[in-house]
Amino acid sequence: MKRPIEEHAARFDEMAATYDDQENDTDEYRACVSLVVDAARDAMDADATVLDLGCGTGAIGLSLAEDAARVLGRDISEGMLAQAREKAADAGLENVSFGEGRFRDPNVPDDVDVDVVVSNFAMHHLADDEKREALRAVAALDPDRFVLGDVMFFGLPDPEEPFYSPEVDDPATVGVLAEAFTDAGFALSDATSVHDQVGVLVGDDVDALAAGDHRAFARADTDALGDGPR
Questions:
Q1: Cα separations in angstroms, 177 against 25, 26, 126, 130
Q2: What is the C-alpha separation between 206 and 176, in angstroms, rounded?
Q3: What is the mean pLDDT of each run of 10 residues along the chain (230 residues)?
Q4: In the chain, what is the straight-line distance between the N-terminal and C-terminal CA atoms, in Å?
Q5: Which label site among 43, 157, 190, 192 has the fewest CB atoms less than 10 Å from its CB?
Q6: 3-state secondary structure (DSSP) of residue 201
Q7: SS3 of residue 74 by DSSP
């Protein structure tokens, strides 16, 4: 991280109340939300437990709640978590819980089996070595699928038009992320470019894929890697 985690948490606490309406009101963000939700649903059934890392105000987790048995949202910002809890209460969702957790320490109870892990617009705050540690932590939960929507470089980013804040963010190239997925034990089954600096990666558990016991591999089409928006 370019800044201490406490500074990141405080920054998001300050913007929590306006985050949905102002901070991420972009076509790219909305496209990522849609792609992440669709890819997660493809790997879920009604008994699934979903973990949303860097959940923010709950955009992904709340969208998946009606299709899951349980959703856990984790974030470092209490302000963002408060917004997520309020939205869950307003929607009458009782199978969703939000609490403090980090990529490298997700704070998942030992007796909870996680089936699908999702994250949207959060991991780019980590340095590349921290991203690798985060992928290993996700893999240790033994999910069938990990879906990552984030700022990532599909080519050389235009320094005049960055889709991120260089002073606080640290996006990786798709190549670095793909290697981290593979090293952690995921088969990268889909990579979609929403923008030359934004995309969605889908990783499936290699052992589950080999055994054929994944809930759904509808998106596991390696021929589609790098094809761009669909």
A1: 25, 23, 12, 11
A2: 19
A3: 72 82 81 97 96 96 97 97 97 97 95 97 94 97 97 81 71 96 96 94 87 50 38
A4: 32
A5: 157
A6: strand
A7: strand
